[in-house]
Amino acid sequence: MSFAAPTDELTGMQAARFGLYLHFPYCLAKCPYCDFAVAVARQVPEERYANAVLTELDARLAADPSLRVKPLESIFLGGGTPSLWHPRYVARVLEGIAARMSLAPGLEISLEGNPERADAERFAGYRAAGINRLSLGVQSFQPQTLKALGRAHDAAMVEGAVAAARQAGFPVVAMDFIYGVHGQTVAQVEADARRAVALDPEHLSTYALTVEREVLAESTPLSKQLERGELSLPEDDDVVAMARVVRDVYGAHGLTRYEISNHAREGLGSRHNALYWTGGEYLALGVGATGMLLSPSPHRYVNLRGPEAYLRTVEEGKLPESSREDLGPEELFAERLSMGLRLVSGVDWEAVCERYGQPVEPRRAEVERLVAHGFAIRHGRRLALTERGADVHSAICARLL
């Protein structure tokens, strides 16, 4: 199943232009690398939270009624652990969104889940509720790596979860992995990659572990260990080798790299994630969720990160925002160019400059240097990073911005 979405003219990628992100913050335990807005809870206020996110949606639609009629092309339930939410409440929320907004035909509806057996027992219910893309947070098959990451599942649970997802009839099953973990070897990463493709997924996302405090939303146990010198990460050359072996194994099994960290079968890239990479708009609901809208003027907002504060604020009839930032041409330009350069298809960098009023000529010499030194290539009007360039994406963006 390939989900419907328009093609972004600057990148050539099919991507939602308007999506909705719903954050479910609750987890049974917090992973030591996680900087997301999550809360550890044994008793999750499932019904109260469902009511709250729909109340927040009502408030946001009242503030900008034009959002009601704009075709919604993707919905993503992330977390936290959304697979802790009973399917009846997921169905209630999806039905509430459908009753309030305009849904585009063939929209992609994703849910993040854990491979644990209790979560997998709910997969059929999520499929019946309307979820058509399931993303499993696997991270690794290796017992040592899973322990280092604080994960509760094992390899057998992953295989059982994939089987349950197939039985439930999900058209797309995706899995997420992490490399560059303390104690991890290149051989283990290759073994993970080979075991992943053997399960025949439609999509694989594989990210380098982020531990440095300056790039995290908040401190984590691992970032504190790193600061104290208690944590030893793999050498940079090994991390590059890990990324390379992942690309090779995935590519050899028909999963094409379409973004720095993402591989998919033809036509099955994430339309919702592509929205972020191509400058689309996204409404966000729930604890700690971040949204970006272009009307009434471009802005980004972040919701309260504490579940109780969020619930109380929404129930008092207020928008649960902790911050709101106006986005001018320079901010939009920087995001559009840097995100576009994450894509294998590249981005029409001159058109991005022109769209946001940024000068082209001062950057042309730098672009020529990138191409001459093998860090980038041209696809017609689009500039795309080579694998060598993708390894230093942040440094390249800093030079172009």
TrEMBL record:
Query: Domain named Radical SAM core: which ranges?
Result: 12-252
Q: Where in the cell is it found?
A: Cytoplasm
In terms of domain of life, where is this protein from? Bacteria
Q: Which UniProt keywords apply?
A: 4Fe-4S, Chaperone, Cytoplasm, Heme, Iron, Iron-sulfur, Metal-binding, S-adenosyl-L-methionine
**Requisite cofactors:** [4Fe-4S] cluster
Q: Name one GO cellular component term.
A: cytoplasm
Q: Name one GO molecular function term.
A: coproporphyrinogen oxidase activity
Give the UniProt record's GO annotations in the biological process aspect: porphyrin-containing compound biosynthetic process
Q: Which SMART domains match?
A: Elp3 (SM00729)
Role? Probably acts as a heme chaperone, transferring heme to an unknown acceptor. Binds one molecule of heme per monomer, possibly covalently. Binds 1 [4Fe-4S] cluster. The cluster is coordinated with 3 cysteines and an exchangeable S-adenosyl-L-methionine.
| Family of the protein in this entry | Belongs to the anaerobic coproporphyrinogen-III oxidase family. HemW subfamily.
UniProt cross-references to NCBIfam families, sorted A to Z: hemN_rel
Protein name in the entry: Heme chaperone HemW
- The scientific name of the source species is Corallococcus interemptor
Q: What gene makes this protein? A: hemW
